[in-house]
Amino acid sequence: MLFKAHFFTFIFCRRLLRNDRCYNLCGSPHRKGSATFFLSQIPQDALRQSMFPLAGLTKEFVKKMAAEAGLHHVLKKKESMGICFIGERNFESFILEYLEPKPGNFVSVEDGAVMGSHKGWFTLTLGQRARIGGLKDPWFVVDKDVVTGDVFVAPTTNHPALFRDTLKTDRFHWVTLDPPLELARSQMMECHFRFIHQMPLVPCSVTLNMDGSVWISLSQPVRALTPGQFAVLYKGDECLGSGKIVQLGPSEFTLQKGRERLVAKSGPTGRPGLGIS
């Protein structure tokens, strides 16, 4: 198998508990364009048979080689910025070519007021601007209820309802088949996390569950964590693997409201039962 990709290499290693060969997926995750993110679900059998001919070369150097080889038509081609295999087109229109509209309401996460309507919760993703007619200021998608069809929105792009610091994955895919020894021994491990290709790495603590899923606690709240996307973990230059996000912890907004209710119950003295109603 041959991958024409940039900025990643593989390293042969001997697994401690088996006699068969194992490969680690490595390559600086800090470098722009690193493809390890997209290979975080690669099976070990496929990785073992893979070759990466451009490993260690920058995109600029490869373009220089292409120019020297006379491949100017390649250099003039614009890089795709749209969704893979879809291109730069309206995502809502594309989805509605295949799915029936399921109209629902835009609901304010702050007071429950209905702000407008949409054509289907599946046409929207967390963090994006909600197109709500008649509103002067932008509102942003912060949560979705797939049962009722309600899409919850907030009035600023950095609203605390968009920020969370804990998440759970389904059964995690480890590139080397088994969890790292540190995690297997103690069920906890420190490493780094991202769920978007070029987002900065975030320090995190990982807890291994009995069913192979993991809880990930981030060192700081991250904007628009989204169920269905993949949580990718790194240890140094190694991409450990990934798991699909299936559950999110409470948002900063929810935690803030909880603290406010607790203070209200405690009263001005901070002692329960002495508040002024």
Automatic annotation (TrEMBL):
Pfam families: tRNA_Me_trans, tRNA_Me_trans_C, tRNA_Me_trans_M. GO terms for cellular component: mitochondrion. Residues 93-154 form the tRNA-specific 2-thiouridylase MnmA-like central domain. The keyword RNA-binding applies. Keywords: ATP-binding, Disulfide bond, Nucleotide-binding, RNA-binding, Transferase, tRNA processing, tRNA-binding. InterPro entries: MnmA-like_C (IPR046885), MnmA-like_central (IPR046884), MnmA-like_central_sf (IPR023382), Rossmann-like_a/b/a_fold (IPR014729). It is an enzyme of class 2 (transferase). One of its GO terms (biological process) is tRNA wobble position uridine thiolation. GO terms for molecular function: ATP binding; tRNA binding; tRNA-5-taurinomethyluridine 2-sulfurtransferase. It comes from the Eukaryota. Catalyzes the 2-thiolation of uridine at the wobble position (U34) of mitochondrial tRNA(Lys), tRNA(Glu) and tRNA(Gln). Required for the formation of 5-taurinomethyl-2-thiouridine (tm5s2U) of mitochondrial tRNA(Lys), tRNA(Glu), and tRNA(Gln) at the wobble position. ATP is required to activate the C2 atom of the wobble base. PANTHER family: MITOCHONDRIAL TRNA-SPECIFIC 2-THIOURIDYLASE 1, TRNA 5-METHYLAMINOMETHYL-2-THIOURIDYLATE -METHYLTRANSFERASE. This is tRNA-5-taurinomethyluridine 2-sulfurtransferase.
